[in-house]
Amino acid sequence: MQMRDILVRSVGMALGLALAASAGLSGEVRITPDIVYGHKHGLAMTCDMFRPETDANGAVLLFMVSGGWYSAWMPPDQARPMFAPLTDKGYTVLAIRHGSSPKFTIPEAVDDVRRAVRFVRHNAARFAVDPERIGVFGMSAGGHLSLMLATTGDDGDESSGDPVLRESARVRAVCAWVAPTDLRHVAWSDPGHDKQYDRFPALDLDQAEAARMSPLLAVSRDDAPALLIAGGRDELVPAEHSRQIHDALAAQGVASRLVVLEKAGHGFQGQDLATAVTAMVTWFDDHLGPAPEPPTAAPNTP
Predict the structure, then answer these.
(1) ∠ CA(147), CA(153), CA(154), 5° rounding?
(2) How many Cβ atoms from other residues are within 10 Å of residue 199's Cβ?
(3) Is 217 within a domain?
(4) Per residue in 202-211, pLDDT tens?
(5) The CATH number of the domain where 189 resides is what?
(6) How many domains does the chain have?
(7) Closest Cα partner for 91 from 120, 55, 139, 145?
(8) Which residues, at least 6 apart from 191, have a Cβ–Cβ distance to it below 8 Å?
């Protein structure tokens, strides 16, 4: 299976997500395509925005368009159904494309999606979203990138001449589907790595870089709450990846939930897919709700 096949499979899972969870929902969505969030090598880095026409709840979700760390464009009208379970709940969704393997490396992809978070925060008023209610989600490599944002977010560089880079890259909640969390043992530099990973050029990492790009090793007390969804029969990214980071987050006191669909592989169907979608939507509802209003002091009585 080539990188493009993995991406198509991830997108297919997301399209199935819409069919499983939003049948009968028909909320109108305004699509803004090809928003430029940065430039590299003279080329634009782009994303597409899907915003509910009515009852937008102010929270924004960034979807990592990535499978095998390969990121590809698709017509936004075709992509729209995959986000229906979220836009119908009032979330604004941005589909983020990063510099794609094999031209660009995993560290470069991580830098790209960090910039995307900063860009959205910097343009929160323009997009009519709350800069403190940013969530991310993705599948497979997209799940890995989501967890890198959860575990390695920073507060920005106040000295930067680029106003976007002065913004925080922290996010408030994450949902990672079938995500690799420890790249040390799948990187080509590990003599014992499973040869199925040889078809992913992005994994041509030395061990130091593989460790740096492993969200499992970056877990700390200030990480974003994370929902981990895994397939019990996943042979490409075994559920142990999700179990290990779930345990690591819990040990640091970070809110985390693990959902293992025991009969599922790297892609979900039927009831497994519906279960995963429901868990994701509920997770974002629980963690991206508006901050509670401070209590009103009772008037003094004589």
Answers:
(1) 170
(2) 13
(3) yes
(4) 999 999 999 9
(5) 3.40.50.1820
(6) 1
(7) 55
(8) none
pTM confidence score: 0.91
- In angstroms, the CA 74 to CA 48 distance is 10
What pLDDT, in 10s, does the model give residues 18-75? 444 444 445 799 999 999 999 999 999 999 999 999 999 999 999 999 999 999 999 9
Q: CA-to-CA distance for 148 and 218, rounded, in angstroms? A: 8
**Cβ 69 vs Cβ 97: under 8 Å:** no
The tokens for 246 are 């779930």
The residue range of the domain holding 176 is: 3-287
Beta bridge partners of 40: 43
**Angle of CA points 39, 45, 50, to nearest 5°:** 140
- Looking at the chain, how many residues does it have? 302
Residue 229 lies in a domain: yes
Q: Which position has the token pair 């560290």?
A: 107
Classify residue 64: in a domain, yes or no.
yes
Separation of CA 99 from chain center:
15
Residue 297 lies in a domain: no
Q: Please say whether the beta carbons of 83 and 66 come within 8 A.
A: no
Asked if residues 136 and 61 have their Cβ atoms less than 8 Å apart, the reply is yes
